[in-house]
């Protein structure tokens, strides 16, 4: 398996008035293609901050991140969008769908923004079919269940074929059954499409989907288990 992401001595410090808060402290981590990794921990443990730094949304205070051998922490703000476009897709808890667009159009708009040509139409259809929504392509978000909305969001993230998928609490707004359906899709992406999938979650009910489970507390990694639980 090829190494997708390497984080070395990664630290993020926020200053609040006279105080400093260590959101993430001295994290060392290696993430590989073909694996699905779970970041577990309570709110405030640093999961989302770590995910945001890996995704080049948030800059670390110190330390380094390499994405397929490319050092991203030294890049300026003009270079980072190209890294995100080339390597990273995001799946968020809140779905972030355009309410006036159908499921199909929500996927298509991302492809158009990425500069996709005539193949965009078929690619959008293929991605929605892959997540089990071939019969919901023309539905607006208001007519979809929470689980279906999350699957549209996943289809949209897959449409660009990025090798790294970062999911922040993707099951947070879903019941247990729909949450597991979403996790089945994410695991399938890692196993069958060789994606590096990283999921930040506090939902221990989905722990059995992960190749690697990482426990975070107070900005540090306090435990790591390899192998599906």
Write a short abstract of this structure.
It is built from 6 helices and 10 strands.
Low-pLDDT residue spans: none
* Spatial order of strands in the largest sheet: 6-7-8-3-9-10
* Main CATH class: Alpha Beta
What's the main sheet like?
6 strands, mixed
Total discrete domains: 1
Give the beta-strand count. Answer: 10
| Rough outline | globular
Radius of gyration: 17 Å
Strand content: 25-35%
Describe what this molecule looks like in 3D.
The chain is α/β, with parallel strands linked by helices. The chain has one domain: 3-Layer(aba) Sandwich (Rossmann fold). The strands form two sheets. The protein has a six-stranded mixed sheet, with helices on both faces. The chain has a four-stranded antiparallel sheet with strand order 2-1-4-5. A hairpin with a 2-residue loop joins strand 4 and strand 5.
